[in-house]
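Technical annex, item 7. During the second reporting period the consortium partners agreed on a shared format for inverse folding records so that results from different sites could be compared directly. Each record opens with the tokenized structure and is followed by the designed sequence. A conforming record, contributed by the partner at site C, is shown below for reference.
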């Protein structure tokens, strides 16, 4: 009688996995779980970075919209009564002359030297055209001149106690209203501060910067060229 050798595959299947196979399978599963966890962690970090970027973009967009809307209602204006000349741009929070009271502690900056966000901060003070006589126009019917509101509007960058830079809108250097946070630097330029700017226009640049909870530095920059209401200065 011929005896057949037992089927080893069947014997393995009936007796279950060997210890070596079990250890190998456990190792493979651990590697898979570790890879999935890493992928999940990276995905979460990217999501949080994207969320921070969207928040910065929204703040910058709203600030740009508000500021450009007001700059369109400003212009070159010399006030004979006070001797003040508008718009007035001052660098690194240091104002002088009739506007010396606007000087303040400069905002703190974290931008690396050589990057676009690194450099001088330039803030602005201006007056806006208003319908003072209530006739529906911002032009005086008798003189044909723009009717200028009495309030001085300024945009200033200040560092709060929490170490965050806030862009403030102020009326007569009071009643600060925060319109954007995590602003690294802001600049306003006219032809008198930058000869490349067309006459009668203001260039506005906002640099945003925020370190999120993962330690990632999120940056963004936005710029706009705004045509002012008048061209009266010689």
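Designed sequence (site C submission):
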């Amino acid at each position: 009688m011929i005896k057949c050798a037992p089927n080893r595959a069947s014997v393995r299947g009936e007796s279950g996995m060997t210890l070596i196979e079990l250890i190998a399978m456990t190792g493979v599963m651990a590697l898979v779980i570790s890879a999935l966890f890493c992928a999940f962690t990276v995905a979460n970090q990217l999501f949080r970075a994207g969320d921070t970027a969207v928040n910065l973009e929204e703040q910058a967009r709203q600030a740009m919209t508000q500021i450009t809307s007001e700059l369109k209602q400003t212009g070159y204006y010399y006030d004979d009564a006070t001797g003040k000349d508008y718009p007035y741009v001052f660098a690194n929070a240091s104002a002088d002359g009739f506007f010396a009271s606007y000087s303040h502690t400069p905002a703190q900056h974290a931008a690396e030297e050589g990057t676009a966000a690194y450099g001088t901060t330039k803030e602005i003070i201006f007056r806006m055209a208003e319908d003072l006589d209530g006739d529906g126009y911002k032009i005086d019917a008798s003189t044909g001149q723009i009717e200028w509101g009495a309030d001085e509007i300024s945009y200033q960058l200040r560092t709060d106690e929490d170490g965050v830079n806030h862009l403030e809108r102020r009326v007569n250097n009071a009643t600060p209203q925060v319109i954007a946070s995590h602003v690294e630097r802001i600049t306003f330029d006219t032809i008198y501060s930058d000869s490349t700017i067309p006459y009668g226009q203001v260039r506005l640049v906002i640099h945003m910067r925020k370190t999120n909870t993962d330690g990632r530095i999120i940056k963004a920059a936005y710029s706009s060229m705004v045509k002012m209401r008048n061209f009266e200065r010689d």
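Strands lie at 77-79, 84-86, 88-91, 122-126, 153-159, 165-171, 174-181, 183-189, 201-211, 217-227. Residues 60 and 180 are 7 Å apart (CA to CA). All partners now use this format for quarterly exchanges.
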